Amino acid sequence: MSINNALDNLPDMAVFARVVDAGSFSGAARELGVTPSAVSRQVARLEGVLRVRLLERTTRKLRLTEAGSAAYTRCQAMVAAAREVLALSDTNTATPRGLVRISMPKAFGRLVVHPLMARFLAQYPEVDVQLVITDRTVDLFEEAIDLAIRITDAPPPGLAGRPLMRIAHLTCASPRYLAEHGSPLHPRDLAQHSCLYLGEDERDRHWRFRRAGAEVTVKVRGRYVANHSEVRLEGALNHLGIASLPEFTARAALAAGELVTVLDDWEHATDYAGMAWLLYPPNRFLPAKLRVWIDHLVAGLAGLAMGRE
Fold first, then answer.
1. How big is the CA angle at 173 (ends 190 and 164), to the nearest 5 degrees?
2. What average pLDDT does range 138-157 have in this prediction?
């Protein structure tokens, strides 16, 4: 295929990628402001040029063929490269400006990122920020998210990223609760205590602990269950039991002596423990608005770390 023919087919490649992202011809057509038949013709034209079937079409859904999967990966990269070109003017502007959309887990967003925002907005008056606070894993491409913070020790492939901070999960209670009910000496002792846990799934009752290569799982119980860490914090402060909390949620109460940790020689293993990663689509030319926000976040988290030392 000549370079001229390849350039002629770039719009069809972009439409094909949009169809896969949308999951249907009609969905892609709505996003593009054209008819489903026009979208179908463009995909069919690309299949004709490539002489391969890209999509298996049924009445209910589309399925990528093996060739279609390979083509989609390359077409998606082409669209990402086009976005990089369009972002060049924003990258090189002297004044960062525009909207930054950032996704992050609820507790991390409320207690770690939100306190850093007032200073950022004051420093960069032409940058607007939208925090998408959710524990759901968002798709950065489909949901037009610029940056995402996820707590994981295995960042997903296909995204650029940098580690931000390690998050520990603690078991803690008020001194009064422990005075009345005793302190657990082993994770198995938690079965005899009232525990404050997440409660979104039956697995949330099964607390896992690790020490020196050994792992122990204990099924906890309690009269008060909440899927918000600040609510569990308040429950612990009101002497309702032993809570499972991210370290940053309990930090102030621990420093004030209102809570104390238990089972300190065990690692409390949860889905919310591990490294917090900042993730974004691969882009060598990050817009200025993203670069300054990333720098501000990293500096703010460094300040938090120094405050703990």
1. 100
2. 83
